[in-house]
Design a protein that fits this description.
The chain has 275 residues and is α/β, with parallel strands linked by helices. It is 24% helix and 14% strand. The strands form three sheets. The protein has a four-stranded mixed beta sheet, covered by helices on one side.
Length: 275
């Protein structure tokens, strides 16, 4: 996204092997720190990026969301919830002009809002005016309904109040986003074959949109046929796993292909994934 917006990316920090390989494959000119952010110092970060303190325009990071997510157990003391402190540490050491932080909306719901307020206070203590808002990607040219908390901060000495972009587009339907998509025939065949095994629907084309329980009480109890005339639903990690259930095609008894998921998430068709 930053590349498309005209930014020059100076450094990526990532510990997951597949994510690192995927990033290197698609952004070969951007250096990558492959390791634990807890072990990355601000000085090393600046050395790798070729910058000095205060020179960076934007620091963007998304500390883990699993501990906050309504799809998980939402434990306040989940150790992953404290990784924002490492983000704040680098923010304080790098002193970029602006920072952006993203997380799930579960961060601002119920008792987890205390964690959100703590994060905002910590970020402000780093010398920034910080403000968070819930934005939905489907109003920003992404054909997927995906709500996330976006926190934007501006360094105090710049004297600028942080602001969030206004909606830029009407929702784009899932079927419109797939116009001209090129699927791998072998992948489609494989997904259709798998669908016969774990989806109990006898007549998939005749099942109502949004159906999520098989009549026969067999496998596929939470498969859901997506509405082609609405944006794609929020894509989760498990939607790419053939043995899981969830997102299903509206006219074919199968999971979506990688090419289709890329369209829903607004990745370019030529983007490649590893692992």
């Amino acid at each position: 996204g930053y590349k498309f917006a005209g930014y020059k990316e100076l450094l990526a920090v990532e510990w997951d092997d597949n994510a690192v390989e995927t990033f290197k494959l698609n952004f070969p000119d951007v250096p990558v720190y492959h390791g634990d952010i807890c072990k990355l110092s601000g000085d090393e970060c600046m050395r790798l990026a070729g910058i000095t303190k205060g020179e960076l325009d934007v620091l963007d990071g998304s500390p883990p969301c699993q501990g906050f997510s309504t799809a998980g157990k939402r434990k306040y003391d989940d150790p992953r919830n404290s990784l924002f402190k490492e983000y704040a540490r680098l923010l304080k050491e790098l002193q970029p002009k602006v920072f952006v932080m993203e997380n799930v909306t579960g961060m601002v719901k119920g008792y987890m809002k205390q964690a959100y307020l703590q994060i905002i206070a910590t970020l402000r203590d780093c010398g920034y005016r910080a403000k968070g808002e819930v934005l939905n990607a489907m109003y920003y040219n992404v054909p997927q309904s995906r709500e996330r908390v976006i926190i934007i901060g501006v360094r105090e000495d710049l004297g600028i109040e942080p602001s969030h972009p206004k909606p830029q587009s009407k929702p784009i339907s899932a079927i419109k986003s797939l116009y001209g998509v090129k699927n791998n025939p072998d992948e489609v065949s494989w997904l259709l074959s798998a669908g016969l095994k774990y989806v109990a629907y006898q007549s998939w084309p005749d099942m109502p949109i949004g159906t999520s329980r098989a009549d026969l009480g067999l496998s596929g109890f939470n498969c859901q046929k997506w509405n082609p005339n609405k944006p794609a639903q929020t894509i989760r990690k498990n939607d790419g796993h053939i043995t899981m259930h969830g997102a299903m095609h509206w006219s074919e008894r199968r999971r979506f292909t990688v090419s289709e998921f890329k369209r829903f998430a607004s990745f370019p068709d030529e983007f490649e994934f590893m692992g």
